[in-house]
Amino acid sequence: MSTSRREVGKSRVPLWVAGFVALACVAILTLSGWREWEARQVDLRNAEVDMANLASSLTQHAEDMFELADTILAGMVDRMEIGGTSAGAVTKIQTFLQARKYNRKRIRGIFVYDETGRWLATTEDVELAGLNNSDRDYFQQHRASADRGTLLGRPVKSRSGGQWIITASRRFNHPDGSFAGVVLTSIDVAYFAEFYKQFDIGPNGAVSLLSADGIMLARSGDDQGAYVGRDLSKSPLFSNLGNGPSASVYYFKSPIDGRQRLSFYRLSTRYPILTVATKAEEDVLEPWRRQAAVRMAIVSGLTLAIALIGCFLVRYLSQRQRMAAALVAKEADFRLLAEQSSDIVMRIGLDERILYVSPSCTRVLGWEPAKLLGTPALAGINPEDRPRLEQAINSLKTGEAEEARIIYRTRTRAKSEIWVETALRVTRSALSNEIDGVVAISRDMTEQKDRQDKLATLATSDGLTGLANRRHFDERLAEEWARARRDETPLSLLLIDVDHFKKFNDQYGHQAGDACLRSLGRILAEQVRRPADLPARYGGEEFALLLPNTGADGCAEVSERVRRALRELGMLHALNPPSKLVTVSLGGATNIPIQGVTEDALVATADRALYAAKESGRDRLVMAGQVIPWPGAKSA
To answer: Quick check: 90 pLDDT over 60?
Structure first.
């Protein structure tokens, strides 16, 4: 009877081993396939981040370009409405434009048309007689609408040069408010196409600049303008744009070249334009495909080797000594792998003390493994992070969760602090299947965390002045408005604009203009006295200063400190009479928020005050309608 049982046992063992080997091979192939899939997803996510950064930068570039055109248009409209369209005035305008030709790489040309569409003046070297643009869409829109804002038109072919251009135009009026004509600036489409060439986005990558209604304005690699003006409003991106976010990752099949693309689009918050940065998926995944083929070949070879070894073990299973030796050798191999791992492997008991720790803790934490055995596992954890870690371990010990992953700070032997990412998983007794501890695998995440923090700082600061950017300002304004409404405390806002800054740039150059803006930004940063106060670059030469829990008197006091510091700096500005120094106009507003009113009301009030300050002579503060000139300032 015993012999029969022994034979049955011997017959079952090879089947069990064969099944185990087969399962191991399947598991290896499955895990390898999962790893390759994860590597593929990582490559796609990295490409998404690259495209997001590129789209943000190019959107800022396009906004700066259209802001330059907008500034030129505003100045020209003022000249036309003040000087009129008489023959003498037109001659002066033409002389002015010819004497001040702009950089043709950015602003192609400036044009002035009267109410009939006739050309009055331009920076182009063309004969004006007989030229008429009344048939252009932008001209007809300005003639039909009293809107004084800037209109970005669809791309057209220039009548003066024949190239594709993007138009930005404004209406100007007669003294009685009637339509007097149009001022227009043109931007070469080829400028954008040439600018986009400097970015390496793969052989099939593309950058596109489109209007918000789906018209192609410019595309990288399109030197001949083959795609300019194409209507893409029926594409899925624009069909869903109204219901989706203003910036997002977007996978699509290009309607232009039929390629499957990974892209990131960003809709400008300042102008009706959309930037789309794309890479062809095949370009993104090509390195992964090559490496995956090599890795899978290696894994397949390894799996085949394991299968052959399994067959060998099944054949010689009867020789217990050899099998035991093989098991001992395998155990040693596995232990060697664990001991050589770059991550810290730690076994923690139910009493939260360390039962085992791998040698890599010496490199990461500076402690020898023997020094840590028996010590509390949570010793050295940053007090702010410790409650989260305690909660995670308690959830594992009570069976509420099987695994957890957490990032926290811990102290090393040298008393410095590092960021650590730890994956936690429960262990169970082989006999009772009861939870008997936790295994923790930890790795040093300090460098990665530092990179993430630096990226977060770059996303909220202005590159020129170092102050908060417009996005950060808007977020803080919403937070402080909600806090002021909840606490019923006053919230003040100062909008600050450099007087005659365009003249300053024209007189001293853009590098001096940038230095001027940096100096003003430094003054604002020095004058804030409380951590909650926020100086920010609002846009162009305009700055903002958010003052929580500050009344109108405090707001005026801060503005006086800013003015005094700027005066003491004494930056020359010959075209800013009477002081001939750089001065600023300030608009201040103070509000105690109430239910149903948004923070936009505070911005609008400060903006009106700033406008009033500039209209009443500049170099002064207007607080909610009250003009407060600086000592010695004279009305313009």
So the answer is: yes
* Euclidean distance between CA atoms 148 and 183, whole angstroms: 11
pLDDT, position 632: 45
CA 150 → CA 73, 132, 136, 142, 417, distances in Å? 8, 21, 16, 10, 54
Q: Residue 530: what are its φ and ψ, rounded to 5°?
A: -125, 150
When pLDDT is averaged across residues 280-297 and rounded to a whole number, the result is 85
Phi, psi angles (nearest 5°) of residue 266: -140, 125
Q: How many beta carbons lie within 10 A of that of residue 183, not counting itself?
A: 28
C-beta atoms surrounding 82 within 10 Å: 10
Is the omega angle on the peptide bond into residue 578 within 30 degrees of 0, that is, cis? yes
Please count the CA atoms within 13 angstroms of the CA of 494 that sit on its side-chain side.
32
Contact between 613 and 633 (Cβ < 8 Å): no
Whole-Å CA distances, 363 to 20, 413, 421:
37, 11, 16
- DSSP output for 269-284: SSSSEEEEEEEEHHHH
More confident residue, 445 or 467: 467
pLDDT in tens, 457-490: 666 788 888 898 889 999 999 999 999 999 989 9
Sheet architecture: strand order including 216-219? 216-219, 206-211, 273-280, 260-267, 247-253
Distance (Å, whole) CA 158 – CA 165: 6
CB atoms within 10 A of CB 346: 21
Q: How far apart are the first and last CA of the chain?
A: 118
C-alpha to C-alpha distance for 636 and 627, rounded to whole angstroms: 14
> pTM value?
0.44
Q: pLDDT, tens digit, for every residue of 138-171?
A: 899 999 998 988 888 888 888 777 788 888 999 9
